[in-house]
Design goal:
Blueprint: H1 3-12, E1 14-20, E2 29-35, E3 38-46, H2 60-74, E4 82-87, E5 90-96, H3 106-109, H4 116-129, E6 139-141, E7 147-149, H5 176-188, H6 192-197, H7 200-216
Antiparallel strand pairs: 1-2, 2-3, 3-5, 4-5, 6-7
Length: 233
């Protein structure tokens, strides 16, 4: 199916819960969307199933949506198609399920030089989005060879919250193409959808982080060794 076809099925199709995904902190379900004779699998994260956090407001699924919009605005295609949808357990995010090799994750992917460009893109994305939970298992190697970054609900905080396993590129220069995309984002402004999903201070902080990354022009180093999520995978 084309991307437009998948969007149509996810947006209008009848949703059937196939099961709950294990090991997720919040309620996360694999669902099948059916529209006429077409089906698509998706990951459904309802707001009702979110565990309250002291430092992030309720409605983490909106940050999943914001992550997709940011990825699209940059032209990086990191986050699988994600839409808002009223599902069996109420409003939440619906993200296209990625058929992937689930034996692979960041710590295995980084050993293959051919994957480094994609991993650098995810790293830069997390720096701009202020991702507080980039675990190794959140990097998926899809059947088509693309690498996606999933589970982006803990992003966009105004305070520094970065926690990630991707520190292998520290002190390396950002690829020119990524710098160009970031400059375009900061010059053109954020897409309206981000302004609807995040508050004004979060949008301002996002732009500030993007500008700072462009100015420095290289990937940072975690000198304290404390900017890692738990668990790592």
């Amino acid at each position: 199916m084309t991307a437009d076809d998948v969007r149509e099925v996810l947006a209008r199709g009848e949703l059937t819960v196939k099961g709950r995904l294990p090991w997720a902190s919040n309620a996360t379900f694999l669902v099948e969307a059916t529209l006429e004779d077409t089906t698509a699998l998706a990951v459904y994260k309802p707001e009702r199933g979110e565990r309250p956090l002291w430092d992030f407001p309720a409605g983490l699924f909106r940050r999943e949506l914001a992550a997709w919009h940011l990825s699209e605005a940059l032209g990086w295609g990191i986050v699988p198609l994600t839409i808002e949808r009223e599902g069996p357990y109420g409003a939440g995010s619906l993200q296209r399920f990625v058929a992937a090799d689930f034996e692979q994750h960041y710590f295995t992917l980084r050993e293959v030089a051919a994957h480094h460009d994609a991993l650098k893109r995810i790293c830069a994305f997390d720096l701009v989005a202020n991702n507080a939970d980039r675990k190794s298992g959140h990097c998926l190697l899809a059947e088509d060879g693309a690498i996606y970054g999933i589970d982006n609900g803990l992003c966009f905080h105004v305070e520094p919250k970065l926690r990630t396993v991707i520190w292998d590129f520290g002190e390396e220069p950002l690829p020119p193409a990524l710098l160009d995309d970031l400059r375009r984002l900061t010059a053109g402004g954020l897409p309206p959808a981000l302004g609807e999903l995040l508050d004004a201070t979060e949008c301002q902080a996002l732009i500030k982080r993007a500008r700072a990354l462009v100015k420095v022009g290289k990937f940072p180093v975690d000198s304290g060794g404390r900017r890692y999520p738990w668990p790592l995978v």
